Amino acid sequence: MPKAETKTKTMMEWRKERGLSVQEFADALGVSIAQASNYLYGRSEPLVSRAIKIAEVLGVRVEDVQWNVDPRTLELPPMPPGMPGVVTPERLEIAKIWLNRGMKKTDVAKELGITRQTLYKYL
Description:
Layout: E1 9-10, H1 11-17, H2 22-29, H3 33-40, H4 48-58, E2 65-66, H5 89-100, H6 105-112, H7 116-122
Parallel strand pairs: 1-2
Helix pairs in contact: 2-3, 5-6
């Protein structure tokens, strides 16, 4: 049986997808929040032993993580066109990607033509 293909993602994307706060991520790794943030934003490259632990905490394979990448520098996919205030499933999916890459909720809500409070209801 063929293995399901897993998309590589940044540590930040995996962390958010798993619902871990930065504090929970740091605690699981046994490092400070500052060190965890350095890993998450690509400012510090983990040693192999730490990379294995990070993958374990995130529940993924080591090769499924884009290492040493600042998610804020990755190119964002364009928001599909739509009417302001109308949040289609496609637009919501792109909004989630933007948020996972570090874009502010206020900016994402503005792009969708909704309030930040309304955005929270979708998330």
